[in-house]
Write a sequence for this structure.
C-alpha cells in the first residue's frame, strides 16, 4: 500500500471526492495527507480529514498566500497541530518563480512556520521553486539559531544542492509526477541518490499528473505511477518501494499512527 504524502483534496468538489477516494483505494493508496495553503483553508481541510479515517491534514500558509494574511505566530500555529488529524505544518517555503508575494514576506512566513514545526514537534512540508539558495540558507540559519526541526521538500523539482542540503540536515525528499516526465532525467538522477530512509512519494493532486496521465487532472490514485518509476530508478520492486516509503512516512509523521 502507498501513502500520498501531499495532495489537495479540497480542490475536488464534495461530489467528486468520494470517487477520487474510491479510485485511490483501488490503486493501493491507503492514506493521504491533504495540505494547508492558508489558515482559513486549513480549518476547512481539517473538516475533510475528520470525516475520513485514512486522510490526515496539515495547517500552514503557502508562499503564494504569504502576503494575504499576517505572518503567523509560531506558538499559535503550533497549537493548531494539537488536533489528532493535523500531523504537520505547511506547505510553507519560497516561490521565486511566480513571486506572488514579496520575497521578504515569503521568508518571514517560512521562518515562522519552521519555528512552529519545531515547537510542535511535527514536520514542515516545504514548497521550493526557483529559490534553492534561499531555502537552503534559511533552513541552515533556523537550525543554527534554534535547533533541529523535521521537514520534507515536497514535489521535489530543485537542484542537487538543495537536496543535499536538506539531507545533511535530516530532511526528507518527496517526489511527485514530475519524476515521470521525459525531461526530468536530472530529477531521476537525484532520486536515485537520496538515502533510502529519506524517500517519500506524493501526487500534489490535482496538479502535475504523472505519465501516462500528463495534462489530465491529477488525483491520489496516480501516486502509483510515480512510485513505479521511482522503484525502477532505485532498482527495487514496487512492493519494496511501497514498504520503504510507508515506513519513512511513519517515522517522519509520527502522529500518523498505523
Ligand atoms: Zn507546493
Amino acid at each position: 500500500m502507498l501513502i500520498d504524502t501531499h495532495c489537495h483534496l479540497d480542490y475536488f468538489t464534495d461530489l467528486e471526492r468520494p470517487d477520487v477516494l474510491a479510485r485511490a483505494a483501488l490503486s493501493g493508496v491507503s492514506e493521504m495527507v491533504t495540505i494547508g495553503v492558508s489558515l482559513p483553508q486549513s480549518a476547512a481541510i481539517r473538516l475533510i480529514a475528520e470525516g475520513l479515517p485514512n486522510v490526515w491534514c496539515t495547517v500552514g500558509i503557502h508562499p503564494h498566500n504569504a502576503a494575504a494574511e499576517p505572518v503567523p505566530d509560531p506558538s499559535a500555529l503550533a497549537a493548531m497541530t494539537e488536533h489528532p488529524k493535523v500531523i504537520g505544518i505547511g506547505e510553507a517555503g519560497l516561490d521565486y518563480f511566480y513571486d506572488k508575494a514579496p520575497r521578504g514576506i515569503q521568508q518571514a512566513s517560512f521562518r515562522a512556520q519552521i519555528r512552529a514545526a519545531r515547537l510542535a514537534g511535527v514536520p514542515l512540508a516545504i514548497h521550493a521553486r526557483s529559490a534553492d539558495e534561499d531555502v537552503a540558507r534559511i533552513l541552515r540559519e533556523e537550525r543554527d539559531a534554534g535547533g533541529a526541526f523535521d521537514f520534507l521538500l515536497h514535489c521535489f523539482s530543485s537542484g542537487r544542492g538543495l537536496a543535499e542540503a536538506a539531507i545533511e540536515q535530516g530532511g526528507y525528499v518527496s517526489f511527485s509526477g514530475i519524476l515521470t516526465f521525459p525531461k526530468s532525467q536530472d530529477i531521476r538522477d537525484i532520486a536515485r541518490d537520496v538515502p533510502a530512509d529519506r524517500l517519500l512519494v506524493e501526487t500534489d493532486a490535482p496538479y502535475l499528473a504523472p505519465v501516462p496521465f500528463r495534462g489530465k487532472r491529477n488525483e491520489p490514485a496516480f501516486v502509483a505511477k510515480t512510485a513505479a518509476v521511482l522503484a525502477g530508478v532505485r532498482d527495487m520492486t514496487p512492493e519494496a518501494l511501497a514498504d520503504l516509503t510507508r515506513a519513512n512516512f511513519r517515522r517522519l509523521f509520527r502522529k500518523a499512527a498505523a
Summary: The longest helix spans residues 103-120. Residues 81 and 87 are 7 Å apart (CA to CA). The first strand starts at residue 2 and ends at 7.
